[in-house]
What does this fold into?
Amino acid sequence: MSKTTRRAFLLGTGAILGGWATRRYYTDPIPAGTLIGTADGKPLTLNDASELSPTPVAKHITITDKFDAASIDALRKELKEATAERRPVIASAARHSMGGQSMARMGTTYTMAHEWIELDKTNLTYRTGSGTRWSTVIAKLDVEGFSPAVMQSNNDFGVASTYSVNAHGWPVPFGPMGATVKSLQMMLADGQLITCSREENADIFFAAMGGYGLLGIITEMEIEMVPNARLEPTFTQVDPLNFGPTFVQAIKGTPNVQMAYGRMDISIDRFLEDAMMITYRPTSDQSDIPQAPGSGWLSKRARDIFRAQLGSDIAKHGRWWFESSLGPMIGGGDTTRNTLLNEPVITLDDRDPTRTDILHEYFISPENFGSFISACREIIPSSYQELLNITLRYVQPDNESWLSYAPTDRIAAVMLFSQEKSVRAEEDARRMTENLIDAALRLGGTYYLPYRLHARQDQIISGYAGLRPFAAKKRAMDPGNLFRNALWDSYIAKA
Ligand SMILES: Cc1cc2nc3c(=O)[nH]c(=O)nc-3n(C[C@H](O)[C@H](O)[C@H](O)COP(=O)(O)OP(=O)(O)OC[C@H]3O[C@@H](n4cnc5c(N)ncnc54)[C@H](O)[C@@H]3O)c2cc1C
It folds into this structure.
């Protein structure tokens, strides 16, 4: 079997390294989301990747050009006008958050789509527009022999939104992406344009890192990069109840691991009873590293295998066999760091208007991870929710961001559910989410904020020690509550 065919097969069985599936949403010509209702004078309605967050907005402004003096003035004018009219404002990029975090109800929603990059090869950094997508970052860095230090599993997202949710990825041994940001420019509610870094306005820098756009609008950023590398995988079968310590040992105890993830068997009759760990290390030959393809074509092949799992335990068994047995046998070919990162979410579309794919994520310490898996074995099968994938990641401690979800080493359990778009399914999902968050909190862990807003208020307070200080900081910096989204309205405003 040729190398590319082996990779396609492997990725197909693994349902793409990030493990995400997507919907028609991603094929929308307006990448920032569906725009409905312009013709009859009704408010514009934006939605996000959940397809469950229709939000009426007063204005939708897309920024496509690099900010200059005139567009900075226009931004300032818009903030002033919105303040006078008591309209909220929020910035967004690809709107792949799933609970209205990227939209301002009856306010102004900005879509940042201004993409530019300037590399500083001496300092291993690049300056970039806040709306630049990771696909563009990879394309520019790849030809120069560099790679993003940390980004999510897919390349569709904006760099400032990645910092604003403080996303993690599967490059190791890193913490969340904020740790790799050197500085940024941000416009505050009063129209000041400030620089934030660890040296300048450090309190704002750390509060805005994972601050969901609630402190201001980021216009540009300076971010670290690392050399690109040719990598080869190692596949290891692991006892799920011992996955946490085994995974951390493999990452910290083995030299040069650059990328790492895990997967679990989700077939119903062997639910979470088997796990695989996949680690990537540089090959001995680092010469002539090939350019990273936009590997969406691989995802297309993966789609059918991935989607066949819906409602079929046979297909789930088949996929796990591919992933745990055939994959390791045929998938040992080398690849590049940028190739692994350059994966779009577009091609796993479920093509079913009655369903949507919803992500969940829970962060648990390695030593308690086995107990969390035991709890999941109880909670998920009885929830009426259709789990299609679990990907596991390592997250290094983050003691910088105020809303940190990883104060110590964490294993991230990323779950992808296919959910019916119905009131009943939403209620089932809410119940299951509350139970999973309770289990995570009991074990000293927490959950991730960019997805559905199904947590109870007491759960966000317990899970985020920095929530109240963050709310106080936001009120001090933005007393008129200009920057608002559903996360603020639903929880933080009440903290
Ligand atoms: C398929 C898929 C895969 C994912 N993979 C991962 C993963 O591997 N790891 C992970 O950690 N997360 C992952 N996520 C979650 C993802 O990182 C977040 O949803 C992220 O916000 C998506 O980026 P976006 O450009 O769509 O952000 P948006 O949803 O547009 O915005 C997210 C937040 O950033 C704020 N924001 C955006 N731009 C600015 C700006 N210029 N200034 C100030 N604030 C701003 C918004 O106000 C909002 O609160 C995934 C999500 C999906 C749907």
